Structure formats: structure tokens, C-alpha cells
Amino acid sequence: MIQVGDALPSTTLMEYSEVEGEGCSIGPNPVAVDKAAAGKTIAVFAVPGAFTPTCSAKHVPGFVDKADAFKAAGVDEIWCLSVNDAFVMGAWARDQKTAGKVRMLADGDAAFAKATGLTLDLNGRGLGLRSNRYSMLVRDGKVVSLNVEAPGKFEVSDADTLLAQAKA
């Protein structure tokens, strides 16, 4: 499993864009993790699935609500990762009103989750291989803090915990 001090894996996530801008076409666009994280402080959190109860009711809203506080603490971007496709993440972004606050990034084939060792096997429950629930603070591509949840829990990966770590 990825640890504090480790670099993020050189994988590619996908991001759905609804409007053209900054060289991005409409639709899914690749995001090279190592390039996107270079020189930035990023609050990353991952969820087992888009539109799932805890993820939609608590996890994403906490980061959306605290987006300005994260910026004030020196965080350049907030990323939400999930093992879903870019179209689902785009629809979830609209539903959660994340525009300008949280980048909703798809880890469609779980490459990032596998590379970090933060997978969650939900095959027996009809959901396949997913990402574990966690949050991490990343500076210039390296993990500064990591908060991994126990199965079925939502206690340490919330926005308040990561915000306190960003302010420290």
C-alpha cells in the first residue's frame, strides 16, 4: 500500500468535461497523474462508487462545502477518485454541484487503485473491484498524509480531517 513519502503512481485518470476550454475537448479527457500533481498541493479522496449513499450524502458534500477553506489552507485542487467511467463521474459531478470546487476523476479500470494498493474487492456484492475509501494530502506528487478507512467506515477520510492536516 502507498505510504506517506511515496510518489503517486504514473497512471492516467479520466475527467469528463462538459465545455471546451484550456485545450480540453468535450467528453472524457485523460489526466496524467504525475503531470497533473507536479508543483501542486492536492487534497485527494477516493470513494467506492459514484451515487452510493455515504459517498453522495457525506463524503463529496464535505469537500464541496469546504473547498474555499482548502484553498485558504494552500490546497490548489481537490480530486475525487472512483472506479467508475468518466461519463458516470461527469453525471455525479453535475448532481453534486462540484464545478470549480472538486475535480471528479474516473479510475475506470482501477489502475490507480491497484497501483496504490488501495483496492476494495466487492465482487461478491455485485460491484467488482473498487477503490477503498480514503483521503490523502499530496504535495508535488508525494503523499504527505494518508487516511484509510476500515471496511464500511467513514471516520478518518472526511473533509474536516484532511483540512486539519492541510492547515498543519
Short description:
The protein has 6 helices and 9 strands, in the order E-E-H-E-H-H-E-H-E-H-E-E-E-E-H. With 168 residues, it is α+β, with helices and mostly antiparallel strands.
Write the layout of secondary structure elements.
Layout: E1 12-17, E2 27-32, H1 33-37, E3 41-47, H2 53-65, H3 67-72, E4 77-82, H4 86-96, E5 103-106, H5 111-116, E6 119-122, E7 128-131, E8 134-139, E9 142-148, H6 159-167
Parallel strand pairs: 3-4, 4-5
Antiparallel strand pairs: 1-2, 1-5, 3-8, 6-7, 8-9
What do these coordinates show?
The longest helix has 13 residues, at 53-65. β4 (77-82), α4 (86-96) and β5 (103-106) form a beta-alpha-beta unit. The strands form 2 sheets. This protein has a 7-stranded mixed sheet. It has 6 helices and 9 strands, in the order ββαβααβαβαββββα. The protein is α+β, with helices and mostly antiparallel strands. It has a single domain, classed as Glutaredoxin (3-Layer(aba) Sandwich), CATH 3.40.30.10. Its EC number is 1.11.1.27. It is an enzyme of class 1 (oxidoreductase). Thiol-specific peroxidase that catalyzes the reduction of hydrogen peroxide and organic hydroperoxides to water and alcohols, respectively. Plays a role in cell protection against oxidative stress by detoxifying peroxides.
List keywords for this structure.
redox-active center; alpha+beta; seven-stranded mixed beta sheet; Glutaredoxin; globular; 6 helices
In CATH, the homologous superfamily goes by the name Glutaredoxin
Rg result: 14 Å
**What is the percent of helical residues?**
25-40%
Shape: globular
Strand content: 25-35%
Estimate nothing, just give the exact number of structural domains.
Answer: 1
Poorly predicted runs are none
Give the name of the CATH architecture. Answer: 3-Layer(aba) Sandwich
Distance between the termini: 24 Å
| Topology-level CATH name | Glutaredoxin
- Helical stretch count? 6
Largest sheet: 7 strands, mixed
Q: Give the structural class.
A: alpha+beta
